[in-house]
Structure formats: structure tokens, C-alpha cells
Amino acid sequence: MGRCIENIKEWLHILAQYTFHYTCPVCHTTVLYEKGIRPGCLAMLETEEGARTCPTCRRTARECTCTLSLPIGITCGNPARSWLAHTFYNCYEDGVLSKLLHNAKKEYKAALFDHMATSLAADLHALRRTERQEWQSDAENPWQGWWITWIPRSLKGYNQYGFDQGEECACRIADILGIPAVPLFVREAGRTQKTLNAVERRENAGNSLHLRRDLVLPEGPLLLYDDVITTGSSMAAALFLLAESGITAVFPIAYARTVRGKRPEYITKDTEK
After folding, report:
1. Number of domains present in the structure of the chain
2. Looking at the structure, do residues 131 and 262 belong to the same domain, yes or no?
3. Alpha-carbon distance values, 163 to 55, 189, 191 (Å)
């Protein structure tokens, strides 16, 4: 009888494998009975994330302390650094990291947001452990008293795709760190940032980004999240608005920071197929 039950379970498992098909949110390959990022894509993604280095100091994003070019002086929660990103984003077309960031803007796939949020939250935890004195926190939860907010996507992007990838990631980071997530900004109609040059980005960000009218000011230091920092114009506009409202303890964070360059040597077309 027991053997018969085991056989039934085995056949049901096989049936489920061929009945429920899922698509990898990075490469769009069909996988059987398995949600999330395909293991092959995840391995290449982690390789890319760890191999990218700052063009100035040649360190990874998690180790880099180069100043982020922002026009105002914000007192960050940690004076040793002014920002944190999980990885650097090299602007070429066919890497796994490029596919992830592209798809995260156009497809609501929880696995993408989970990966981005989990990766950055792990970096934040590591930062607090290695730089405990600079952060000056003795609480059991080192993030106690902190808040997190995000820079919203363009109104055009939200209307077209129906979600805000920044909000999705920020709320997941909040859950991991055990802190509240609060929407502080709204976007008015403006041009899409990715179509603009550096000067146009600064002007567009300043004109389209505003604080909410029903704003509830955080009572502690604030994490300010954006999925990708390219020129820093959106971050700068957001920090300026926060400073004007009296919020100056802000720590900018991002999943990736853009650097310009050619395709890294460790990525080949054969490995990406």
C-alpha cells in the first residue's frame, strides 16, 4: 500500500512538471515546475554583479566610497560614505544584468524585485556590521528608527506598465530590514529620463519630481532608493526637496550605478545563450 502511494506521488509530481510551465524573468526561457530566476541566469548575474568595478578607484560597488556627484550637502547616516549601490551597470546591450534591469521596468516579475531587494539589503546589513562605529547604533535591530522611500518612475512608465519597480524593491527592502516604507514623492508628467542627456535629465527631474501634499515626515534617518543611478539627477532633485522640508539624514541607495564602457571580457555571446 505504501509503495502504491509513493508511485502515485511520483506520477503526480511528473504530471505537475509537464503541466505547469514558468518563464525565467531574465532570459524568458521556459522552465518546468520552477519559479524564479533560472539557475544559469542567476550564476551569470552574480558573476556580473561581483566583477564590475568603479572606473575611478577600481573597487566593487559594495567597497567603493567615491563621492556621488550631488549638488547639495546631505548629512548621511554614515559619514564614511555618501551612497551605496549593489553593483555597477555597464551600458552595453546583451548582458544578463542589462536584461534584468530592462525586464524589471517592463514586466511585473516578483523574482526580479526579490533578487534586487535581497542583494541590496544584504549589502546594507554587511555595511552596518563592518562600519558599526560610524553608524552609531547599539539597537538589537541596527536599522531601528530608519525609514525608506523611493524615487517613483515616470508617470508615462507607470501608466504604460501598471507598476513602479522602485516601490516594489523599496517595500521588499523595508520588509527585510524591519523598517517602514513611506511614499514621499510624486511624479508629474515629464519626459522619460532614459531618452535625455545629462543636462536634460537634471532639468527634467527638477521639474517633474515633487513632495506629496499629504506628506508625513519621517522621524528618523531615511534610505532613499532608486533602481539605477545614471547621472544622479533624480537623486539630486529628491535630496534637494528633502533638504528643503527639513530632512537631511538621508542615505541614497540603488541596485546599480551606471558606468560607461565596453562589454567586459568575462561575458561572451556563447555564455549568454
Report:
1. 2
2. yes
3. 33, 16, 18
**Which range among 52-56, 109-113, 169-173, 205-209 shows the weakest confidence by mean pLDDT?**
205-209
Residue 164 has pLDDT above 90, yes or no: yes
Q: In terms of Cα–Cα distance, which of 204, 269, 266, 210 is closest to 240?
A: 210
Between 19-33, 89-103, 104-118, the lowest mean confidence (pLDDT) is in 19-33
Q: CA-CA distance, 256 to 227, in Å (whole number)?
A: 6
Of 204, 256, 227, which Cα lies nearest the Cα of 87?
A: 256
CA dihedral 102, 103, 104, 107 (to 10 degrees): 140
More confident residue, 199 or 174: 174
| Average pLDDT score, the chain | 76
Amino acid 152: pLDDT = 94
- Is 40 part of a structural domain of the chain? no
Identify the domain containing residue 52 by its residue range: 45-272
Q: In terms of DSSP bridges, do strands 30-32 and 21-23 run parallel, antiparallel, or are they unpaired? A: antiparallel
Question: In a 3-state reduction of DSSP, which class is residue 33?
Answer: coil
- 157: which 3 cell numbers? 512608465
CB 268 within 8 A of CB 100: no
Instruction: Kindly list the distances between the CA atom of residue 251 and the CA atoms of 44, 65, 75, in Å, as whole numbers in the listed order.
Output: 29, 13, 8
